[in-house]
């Protein structure tokens, strides 16, 4: 019985196979169609793969790893720049002929790490920036003065861009070993396009025979001033307190500032203390590019002060790096150098401490005196918990070791260099601002009283009062402090709501806090910490 059934089953299977394989049948046609479809899918896969590979070869990605098609450098007498175009340093200029916005601000000759290049600070599209070329111009006494050398450029988008449409960037123009450094450079999108920008090339190296900068020389960089910033008392406090902390020079970028602050900064500029550069960047802040393109400003300031100052601090107007055992920041770094190996340090990072403006003023400060107008004197309550390094921290850089500067830390150093995280027992960043999430819930966080900044209070009050008196008439400052007839002083700045056109100190009130709130209520204010004298 079993053999019979097995034979019948085998016969049926052979018949079915014969039927499926019979030429001209419907099953045979279906098999051929499936084979053709599989072949087409394979072709489509390789086609898409080929397009991706071709795109990577021909275009520059968002980190600038690609260099486009490498064309040989060539002499080009056509077309010359516009007759009314002159070389500028530190002013936004457009790159014409691109599909998206492309602007350039400054150019530096950089020969560190064995490479010779013109490094241009600019702003362009974050994803797949367009390919551009560098056109070099030479002075009238140079053999090539009537010609322009054009080379392909490499666009390197600065890492800190917040995924917005536009970003700060570097445009890198490589020079051959024997190629003369140009006096002026233009960035063009097409070889035969008349340039609409001319950047004076600034040398990064010291002149032959010139001594290196004083190891204690400290420059301060501040991100672009906007919202018609006009707080003269806070500006004078920032300038004078940082001078006491060791700063020799300040660099500001003027998007929009008010008349009193403008007058103060021009006075300091006339005395060689301040560099004030225009900042007319045609990109919508926070919608197209992050906060007025601040990362272009930070890197321009770093390269602008390289080999002119040994140290560069990147801070905001409501921030102060305050040492606990030393009076000045250069003294602090020298003190650290005796305890740590800092020879290869490219930057020194300082942890952030919030001094929220909603906390009460220090009861020891005279409410009827100038001290009540100074943030660092009247605001001494700070949040106990510090942010970790790289989260709201700020830093002092050794610029000759830095390639790319960020807001809270250095993104890229030259090989062999890195950051040193300074312990909070040596110094912290004092950050005076309102609650970062809006409202007043921040005052519930655990807090202590920290009067470290009071060691500068008396000298600072005297110096601010002196500068105010000298500038009062020219800058139309009015009286620095006028108690009302009944003897009750007016509320100090920051105790009420800020004017509508002024952002609260610290920038965007809704900016995310990477560390998050403590969520811990303080039962009492801790005893004041007494700073040790150096």
From TrEMBL:
List where Low complexity composition bias occurs: 507-520
Q: Does the keyword Repressor apply?
A: no
Q: In terms of one coarse class, where is the protein primarily found? A: membrane
Q: Where in or outside the cell is it found? A: Membrane
- According to the record, the segments passing through the membrane are 37-60
Annotated region (Disordered), positions in chain:
479-534
Q: What is this protein called?
A: Glycosyltransferase family 92 protein
């Amino acid at each position: 019985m079993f053999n019979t059934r097995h034979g019948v089953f085998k016969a049926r299977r052979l018949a079915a196979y014969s039927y499926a394989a019979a030429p001209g049948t419907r099953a045979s046609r279906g098999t051929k169609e499936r084979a053709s479809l599989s072949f087409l899918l394979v072709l489509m896969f390789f086609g898409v793969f080929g397009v991706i590979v071709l795109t990577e070869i021909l275009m520059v990605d968002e980190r600038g790893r690609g260099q486009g098609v490498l064309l040989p450098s060539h002499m080009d007498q056509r077309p010359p720049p516009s007759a009314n175009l002159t070389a500028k340093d530190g002013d936004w200029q457009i790159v014409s002929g691109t599909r998206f916005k492309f602007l350039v601000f400054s150019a530096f000759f950089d020969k560190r790490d064995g490479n010779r290049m013109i490094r241009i600070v600019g702003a362009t599209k974050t994803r797949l920036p367009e390919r551009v070329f560098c056109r070099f111009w030479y002075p009238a006494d140079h053999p090539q003065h009537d010609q322009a050398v054009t080379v392909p450029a490499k666009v390197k988008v600065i890492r800190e861009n917040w995924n917005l449409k536009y970003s700060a960037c570097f445009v890198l123009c490589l020079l051959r070993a024997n190629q003369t450094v140009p006096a002026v450079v233009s960035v063009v999108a097409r070889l035969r396009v008349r340039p609409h920008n001319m950047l004076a090339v600034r040398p990064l190296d010291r002149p032959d025979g010139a001594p290196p900068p004083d190891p204690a020389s400290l420059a301060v960089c501040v991100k672009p001033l906007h919202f018609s910033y006009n707080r003269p008392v806070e500006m004078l406090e920032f300038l004078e307190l940082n001078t006491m902390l060791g700063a020799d020079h300040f660099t500001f970028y003027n998007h929009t500032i008010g008349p009193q602050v403008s007058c103060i900064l021009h006075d300091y500029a006339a005395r060689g203390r301040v560099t004030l550069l225009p900042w007319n960047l045609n990109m919508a802040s926070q919608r197209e590019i992050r906060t007025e393109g601040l990362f272009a400003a930070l890197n321009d300031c770093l390269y602008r002060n390289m080999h002119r100052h040994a140290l560069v601090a990147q801070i905001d107007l409501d921030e102060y790096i305050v040492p606990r055992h030393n009076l000045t920041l250069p003294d602090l770094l020298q003190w650290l150098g005796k305890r740590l190996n800092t020879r290869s340090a490219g930057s020194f990072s300082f942890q952030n401490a919030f001094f929220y403006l909603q906390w009460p003023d220090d009861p020891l400060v005279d409410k009827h005196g100038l001290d009540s107008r100074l943030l660092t004197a009247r605001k001494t309550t700070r949040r106990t918990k510090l942010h970790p390094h790289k989260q709201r921290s700020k830093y002092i850089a050794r610029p000759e070791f830095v390639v790319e500067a960020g807001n809270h830390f250095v993104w890229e150093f030259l090989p062999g260099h890195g950051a040193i995280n300074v312990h909070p027992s040596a110094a912290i960043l004092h950050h005076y601002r309102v609650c970062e999430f809006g409202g007043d819930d921040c005052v519930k966080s655990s807090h202590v009283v920290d009067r470290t900044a009071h060691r500068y209070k008396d000298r600072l009050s005297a110096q601010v009062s002196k500068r105010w008196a000298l500038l009062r008439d020219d800058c139309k400052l009015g009286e620095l402090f006028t108690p009302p007839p009944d003897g009750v002083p007016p509320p100090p700045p920051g105790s009420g709501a800020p004017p509508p056109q002024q952002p609260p100190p610290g920038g965007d009130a809704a900016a995310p806090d990477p560390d998050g709130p403590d969520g811990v209520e303080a039962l009492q204010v801790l005893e004041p910490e007494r700073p040790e004298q150096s």
